[in-house]
Structure formats: C-alpha cells, structure tokens
Amino acid sequence: MVDQGTTAIPHANPANPLDHLASRRVALVHEWFGATGGSENVFRQISDLLPHAERFVLWKDHDATEPNLRESWLSRTPLRHTKAGALPMMPLVWRTLSRERFDVVISSSHAFAHTVQLGSPEQTRYLSYVHSPARYVWSPDFDGRGSSPLLALPRRILQSADVRLSRHVHSYAANSQEVRARIARYWRRDAVVINPPVDVDYFASAPAADQGQTRDYLLGMGRWIPYKNFDLIIQIADAAGLPVVIAGSGPEEAALRRAAERVRVPVTFEVRPSKERLRQLYWGARALLFPVHEDFGIIPVEAQACGTPVVGLRRGGLLETVVDGETGFLVDSLDPRSFVPPVHQLRELSPDRVRAHAAGFSEQQFAARMAAWIADALR
C-alpha cells in the first residue's frame, strides 16, 4: 500500500521558514556532479536555501567548477569514469560516505542518493528530492543501459536494495507528477510535487533585436541521443515544409546529419550553443518541437519563457508544462504527419499567454516551494 503523505505544497511564510536550521547540522547529497545539467542546478538552488550545509557528491567531473563539494571515496577509483560500472557500488558508498552525523540530510537523487545514511533515522531527519527512480534499474524501456536480458537478475537485486535501503526516508518530493507516480509504483511511497527551477527571467528578458525576429523556423533542442527523437523532428519539419534548427550535441550527430541530407527543407545544426545563443534561437523559432517522453523537461519551459509555443507528445512532463491549445499543442502519435496540423495552427496562440504560463516555473517559485516542503517535513 502506498504511504499517505502530504501532496499539497503549503505556502511559505514571509520570513524564511528555514532560519531555524542555521544552528543545526545539515548535509546535502547529490549523485555525480557534472559541469551542466538540470539536476545539478536543482542541487545549487537547494544549496542557496541552506548555505551553511555540508555538500557531498559521489564525484565531481573534471570540467565541473562547483566549489566546496566533498567527494566520496568512489572518486578515488577508476569507477568514477563509468556511471554504469559504478552503479552496483553506489548503495555501499552512500552507507559509508562519512562517519559524521547530521541533524538533517537532504538528497538530490536520480540513482541511489536517497539511500544515504548520516545518522540514525531516530536522530536524523531524511528528505529526498527525486529526479526519477533510477531509470536503468526500474525503467529499462526508458533507458537502454538496463535493458539487456543479461541484466535482468542484477536489476532485480538492485531494485530490492533500492527499496530496502530507503525505508528511513521521512519525506519525498518529486520533480513532476510523472515521477511521483513512479515513486508510488516502485517504492510504495507518496511524494510532494515540486517542479524544477527554470531561469525564466533570463529567457524572457532578451534584447529587443532578439525579440523582433521573424520566427520562420522550427527548433529542436537537447542531447542528441536516440530516445530524444531528433530524427523525428527532422521528419516533422519536412512534412510541415518548414526549415528546422537542431541545437545541442551528442553521439547521434553523424546520423542526424545524414538524415538532414534526405529531406527537402533546410536543416541547420547549432552545436553546443551558448546560453545567450540558445535564447536567440528560442526567440527566433515558430515553435519548439519536443516529440519525446520526459520526466519533466526544462527545455519546453525555457522556450515558453520566450513566447515560443511547444508542439510535443501528450506524455510525461509536457502534461504539466504545456497547456494544450493555449501554450502549445500535444500530439498522441509519433507519426510525423500528426504534427503538421498543430504546426499550422501556431499563429492562433498568444505569445503573451505562453510567456505568462512559463513564469510559474521560475527559480523563485521553486525556492518558495522547496523551503515550504522542508519546513513542513521537519515539523
């Protein structure tokens, strides 16, 4: 049976509801820390709420410049270079992280960080913000790294360990309704939903020259890997008869460039655009194409902050970030022809309405909801 928990976010008090934690020992815990990424940004935002907290990570990537991160002993082994290889060791690492004891431990988890223990559950309060239960352990249909039949037994072992070693967690928060449902299905626990922070102020405040663009192309943005469906984005643009810009980077680049040669519309590749360039691309696009099932999806919110509607799948995070028929259009099929009618209806949408919707996912909103959840969970 699913544990019953608070699902509504209480309103934060005008005074900082976390002031009382200044005199308590607090630890913040994250998985591996890369140079960029949505989960890393969540960890930074939580750190800003609790600046006196000790911060622990499995390891920090060599190109990550984040200061004051305490790395685990796993960082001193060759396993730091292979996330898949390190996975079976992670539960052990989180239980042997430090001999120090803390009053409050808050984890930012997309693998096993929520299993960390830095004090007995009777004396230490454990909270966990979950980006997703480990996809390669619980959802191999989403993540091919765990889909091999040879990994069926190891996955079952890790699933059992994941549940057993996380019973001490007092309160969960999920980054979306999609992830909340997985937490209930896999761990039999309830969770508060707190959507990740998006820098909507930056994307909304583009220079006048960027805002005055003619919006004459479609845009695909993200990591160029198979499940992101960038090949489908190219096909959608071809079916709609509109140019498309493919922005990002990843191992599928060569395949996508070959796919671009087979269509009739212009396809432009923007490799690793800067944040400033990405803002320009959002403001110049007629729509962001997002035919992918994501847990949440920060990119669609960034696009909407620029007044750019989203055309994507009626699944996962888009059900929370896009208002169908108002800030974009949601499609039920992966047939590229199904996306053509919505693309031709984009002129009916109000850019002001699109931007206003994105404001609900701001960093300020995240901070208020996160602080309220932590304060409520510690009562």
From TrEMBL:
- Report keywords, A-Z: Glycosyltransferase, Transferase
- UniProt domain Glycosyltransferase subfamily 4-like N-terminal: residue ranges: 37-201
Q: Specify whether Disulfide bond is a keyword of the entry.
A: no
**Pfam families xref list:** Glyco_transf_4, Glycos_transf_1
UniProt GO molecular function: glycosyltransferase activity
Q: Which InterPro entries match?
A: Glyco_trans_1 (IPR001296), Glyco_trans_4-like_N (IPR028098), Glycosyltransferase_grp1 (IPR050194)
Question: Can you give the residue ranges of the Glycosyl transferase family domain?
Answer: 214-355
- The superkingdom of the source organism is Bacteria
Q: Kindly state a single biological-process term from the GO annotations of this entry.
A: carbohydrate derivative biosynthetic process
Instruction: Tell me if DNA damage is a UniProt keyword of this record.
Output: no
* Gene3D superfamilies listed in its UniProt record: Glycogen Phosphorylase B
UniProt cross-references to PANTHER family, sorted A to Z: SULFOQUINOVOSYL TRANSFERASE SQD2
Which protein are we looking at? Answer: Glycosyltransferase involved in cell wall biosynthesis
Q: Organism, per UniProt?
A: Micromonospora olivasterospora
